[in-house]
Amino acid sequence: MRVAPKIVLADEIRQTLERWSRGRSTPARQVLRAKIVLAAAEGKENQAIAEELETDRMLVGLWRKRFFEKGLAGIEKDAPRSGRRPAARNAIAKKIIEWTTQKKPPTPRTGAHGRWLWNWAPAMRWSIACGGPTGSSRI
Question: Burial level of 34, CB count in 10 A (0-12/13-18/19+)?
Fold first, then answer.
């Protein structure tokens, strides 16, 4: 039979968790995590906490364990996700920044305002067409 780790809170950590649990500008997931840890510190079981907070028992166990292992840092941020890094996208974003901040555009010829920009910054076309390096992308 598995036993949930016992949570003991120092006054300073308890105050931080209470502030997070009541914070109006605190992200909702962080509020839930703080409430889970506070309830666990009161000695409640995972099932009782899950019913009280209307969430899953496994989720309660996850955050209780993560707090036990890593403290406040364990529940403050999400764990890194798996998957490949977007290398091509980062390279294109770097090129856009270089083109727009380091290179001087050529002097526009008469009546060719749009054309010289189109030829000057191919990375800008990508930025406009695909939402840019930080916007929504179809890539």
Answer: buried
Q: Is the pTM of this model over 0.90?
A: no
Do 4 and 40 touch, CB atoms closer than 8 A? yes
Tell me: the pLDDT tens digits for 96-126?
A: 888 777 777 666 554 555 555 556 556 555 5
Examine the domain organization and report whether 27 and 61 are in the same domain: yes
CB within 8 A of 132, min separation 6: which ones? 93, 96
Last residue of a domain, one of 76, 98, 122: 76
**What contacts 88, CB < 8 A, 6 or more positions away?**
139
Which residue carries 């209307």 as its tokens? 54
User: What confidence tens digit (pLDDT) does each residue in 55-112 have?
Assistant: 999 999 999 999 999 888 888 888 777 877 767 777 888 888 887 777 776 665 545 5
For the chain, what's the residue count? 139
Our count of domains for the chain comes to 2
d(CA 4, CA 118): 62
